[in-house]
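General statements about sequence and structure are easier to judge against a single worked case. In the encoding step, the backbone of a single protein was reduced to a row of integers, each denoting a local shape. The record that follows shows the chain in one-letter code together with its fold in token form.
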Amino acid sequence: MIEKKKSFMDTLEETVIATILGLMTLITFVNVVLRYTAGTGFGAYMKETWGINGGLIWGLEMTSILFSWLVLFGVSYCIKITAHLGVDSLINVFRMPTRRKLALLATAISIIYALLLMKASWDYYANFANLPATTGHWFPTGFEEMKTTSYRSWYEVDRVPMPDWLRFIEPMINEGEAYNKIPRFIPYAILPFGAALLLFRLVQAFTGLANGTRDTLIVSHEAEDDVKEVAAKAAAQET
């Protein structure tokens, strides 16, 4: 049987999550090594050659940024693979057609929440990226007139240094002024993007529930029972 090739959107979260986990692990590992070798010849070499004294001063902040990206990508990924936890004791009382209707209702409410979240995240992010916020109280009805006095593109993070290969953005967004640290609009970009990705996955889930290719929005107890059954069979085979 030929396996269907995954689309870009199907593999997006998996690829990014794996990359983020790898980077977090690498940064943490390097920081630990540098910390415990600070008083050795290797530590002296790193200090003299690279100016690193006892660890990466930006390591903790960078790990925190990566973790926030991981969480926001993980939210949409868990929608995709039906991994969000939920209480289904009441839902399981009903027959499957009713369960699906309740799941559709829950997903519709979640879509409304995702729309609100996307507007709020865009409006927060916009000032850091020199972009106009949206109009409307609950849902976007357009874009506000651009007010340059309120822009905060010059805001930087606390410790992560600005890499030279990103200097090309300075004349585009910071009037040619140099950044010492990376501007906040770069890590904050995950806010509107993560909200949009969550909305996309929720619409996918709603479509799947409507056409019968999906039964629920949350992980069910039956899945837990299946895992226990497989573990029991594996234990029996070992004995």
